[in-house]
Amino acid sequence: MVIVGYSGHGYVVCSILKAAGLRVTAYCDNLVKDSNPFNLQYLGKEDDETALAAFREMKSFVAIGNNHLRKRLSDFILVQGGRLINAVHPTSIICPSAIIEKAGVMVAAGAIIQPLAKIGAGAICNTGCIVEHECIVGAYSHIGPGTVLCGNVNVGENSFIGAGAIVRQNITIGRHCMIGAGSVVIKDVPDHSTVVGVPAR
Q: What are phi and psi of 122, to 5 degrees?
């Protein structure tokens, strides 16, 4: 399979896929990387002919942390007839009643997804995060390492919640929001907002 994006976040994705028993053989990126810890073949940029052929022939994963770029590249691959898979670490805990979309979701080591939670396409549930019961994580959002979403939290699409943040139960975080690392969110956050601090404001 092929990954798109091969740097820090891409290395994490490769380690997840390897732990899950999947074989990554190639990568696409703007440049050949000097660091190649997984010994992958370089296919060029995503719109190079070699890359386009690989998207049609192999499964793919977009290993880019930036939410908007991850969505754009995922859409591009799907338009080319490609297939996106999920990257789920075997040490993560996903309750059987949780719903994980089948298109480019990353669930990292130690992440916990509780009953009736819903994780949208292209979302990232990073290392050791907790997504409690009945939470909704919108498409192409990023739940940072060690973040805790208490029960019934709704995170809109393309939002970012920084490492170690805590979101109180029954809170709604809008679309395209940014929550600073370590913040404690105790009230709803409107679309296109940035909040930080304890409590977040």
A: 70, 5
* CATH class held by domain 2-85: alpha beta
Active site residue 133: yes
In this predicted model, what pLDDT tens digit does every residue of 69-119 receive, in sequence order? 999 999 999 999 999 999 999 999 999 999 999 899 999 999 999 999 999
Both tokens assigned to 95: 């309750």
Any residues with CB less than 8 A from the CB of 62 and at least 6 apart, and which? 3, 4, 5, 70, 73, 74, 77, 84, 104, 122
DSSP one-letter string for 47-104: TSHHHHHHHHHSEEEE----HHHHHHHHHHHHHTT-EE--EE-TTSEE-TT-EE-SSS
Q: What is the pLDDT of residue 102?
A: 86
The model's pLDDT over 15-43, given as tens digits with 9 standing for 90+, comes to 999 999 999 999 999 999 999 999 999 99
The CATH classification of domain 86-194, taken from the options 3.30.559.10, 3.40.640.10, 3.40.50.2300, 2.160.10.10: 2.160.10.10
State the catalytic residue, choosing from 133, 142, 176, 192.
133
Helix (H, G, I), strand (E, B) or coil at 19: helix
In this structure, what token pair is assigned to residue 142?
Answer: 């990023």
Reduce the DSSP state of residue 8 to 3 states and report it: helix
Predicted TM-score of the model (pTM): 0.95
For the CA atoms of 24, 145, 158, 78, what is the dihedral angle to 10 degrees?
Answer: 10
